[in-house]
Amino acid sequence: FYNHFQDKFELIEWIIRRELLEPAKPLLGNGMIMEAMVLLFTNIQREQAFYTRLVRMEGPVRFHEIAQKCVGTVLEELIEKESSGKVSSHKWLTPKVVAAYYAQSMCFATEEWISMGMTISPREMAEAYQYMLTRSFTDVIREL
Question: Which whole number is the average pLDDT over 84-112?
Answer without folding.
Answer: 91
